[in-house]
Design a protein that fits this description.
globular; AAA family ATPase; 2 helices; mainly alpha
Length: 61
């Protein structure tokens, strides 16, 4: 249950980003491996956009 609440908080933050940026900025998601980053991004993209691009494994220096 706790994982679902956390995912909902992240999803809500992504909705705020979408509203506030109005498409003028990219969104970068960072975090430890295997916590669901790709899953939540894919769900968000499918629900909120007609088309999308997900770029993975960008070196952060």
């Amino acid at each position: 249950m706790e994982g679902q609440i956390f995912k909902r908080k992240i999803y809500d933050a992504m909705l705020r980003w979408k509203h506030d940026s109005a498409g003028s900025t990219a969104l970068m998601i960072e975090g430890p491996r295997r916590v669901g980053k790709s899953t939540i991004v894919k769900q968000f993209a499918q629900r909120e956009y007609k088309s999308y691009i997900i770029v993975r494994n960008i070196p952060t220096g």
